[in-house]
Automatic annotation (TrEMBL):
Alphabetically ordered keywords of this record: Phosphopantetheine, Phosphoprotein
Record carries keyword RNA-binding: no
InterPro entries named among the record's database cross-references: AB_hydrolase_fold, ACP-like_sf, PKS_NRPS_Biosynth_Enz, PKS_PP-bd, PP-bd_ACP, Ppantetheine_attach_site, TesA-like, Thioesterase
GO biological process, one term: fatty acid biosynthetic process
Name under which the protein is recorded: Carrier domain-containing protein
GO cellular component: cytoplasm; plasma membrane
Single GO molecular function: fatty acid synthase activity
Keyword Zinc-finger: no
Superkingdom in the source lineage: Bacteria
Residues of the Carrier domain: 1-57
């Protein structure tokens, strides 16, 4: 790419979480400046990032639960990070939603302290995140949404909330398939290749922490066994590849599936895909047209 305009979005140009880490590393090496990864998600243009650096380039977000929009009169949407995600991958989706809908991202532990204890299982991670969302919303009905690895996390969160007697009003899974804790050699090889790609691309203390998180996320996902939930499941699948039949034995209610002609990676990084996802969510959950 020969040039980038000051107002062009990093993500519209094809950026993703791994490239964010590379960008932060490059800024550190060339400019000698410490820029938190969250700054790129919050201000993904050259102009916006420069302004953010000037404003709070040294500040860091240390919490697991990060508000993308903390105000509104509707119950919040809680969104769990992807396997290589930092939570901010849901920023565009939050922007699509009317202002009455609060949005919170769940980011992985260990980003701000490389020696921090990481969860031993996906169930343990989900329990931690349930405790975190209850600091904002003590009781249901809850609205949970997750893409890829995040879909597994919110599904387990829903199971735990239901066991605690809470209502889950919305369980939205974006392009995930249930797992049985017995991954094939092909699946393991695919994840190993993904881990190697991350490890080879990154350097530095912060990046070592990120690689450690990705490897742990992979480990706990491969060992996880999807449990049954009581309510409906809203499933949005990419690559025009239906997955509802895989989920039906694990859902007591209905599996409401929509397939989109976007790749797995594009679902939250393509503005048209994100808009269609929100429209599906709004329609299936009966959110009123007067909100728009």
């Amino acid at each position: 790419m020969s040039s980038v305009g000051a107002e062009e979005s990093f993500f519209e140009l094809g950026g993703h979480s791994l490239m964010v880490v590379r960008l932060v590393n490059r800024i550190r090496a060339v400019l000698g400046m410490e820029v938190p990864m969250r700054a790129v998600f919050e201000a993904p243009t050259v102009a916006g990032l420069l302004a953010r650096i000037a404003e709070d380039g040294e500040q860091k977000t240390t919490g697991v639960l990060v508000p993308m929009r903390s105000t509104g009169d509707h119950a919040p949407f809680f969104c769990a990070h992807a396997i290589m995600g930092l939570g901010w991958e849901y920023g565009w989706l939050a922007d699509c939603a009317p202002e009455r809908y609060p949005f919170y991202a769940l980011r992985p532990r260990g980003l701000d302290a490389g020696s921090a204890e990481l969860p031993d299982s996906l169930s343990q991670m989900a329990a931690d995140y349930v405790a975190q969302i209850r600091t904002v919303q003590a009781n249901g009905p809850y609205h949970l949404l997750g893409w890829s690895f995040g879909g597994h996390v919110v599904q387990e969160m829903a199971a735990q909330l239901e066991e605690a007697g809470e209502e889950v009003a919305a369980l939205v899974v974006l392009d995930s398939s249930p797992v049985d804790g017995r991954p094939t050699a092909e699946v393991r090889a695919g994840f190993a290749e993904q881990e190697d790609t991350v490890a080879e691309a990154l350097t530095g203390e912060e990046h070592e922490a990120y690689v450690r998180i990705v490897r742990n996320n992979t480990k706990i996902l491969l060992a996880h066994q999807t449990r049954k939930t009581a309510g409906n499941l809203l499933l949005i699948s990419g690559d025009s590849d239906p997955k509802a039949d895989l989920w039906r034995p694990l859902v007591s209610g209905e599996v409401l599936e929509h397939t989109l002609d976007f790749s797995h990676r594009e679902l939250l990084l393509n503005s048209e895909a994100v808009r269609r996802i929100w429209d599906i969510v709004a329609n299936e959950l009966g959110l009123t047209e007067t909100d728009y």
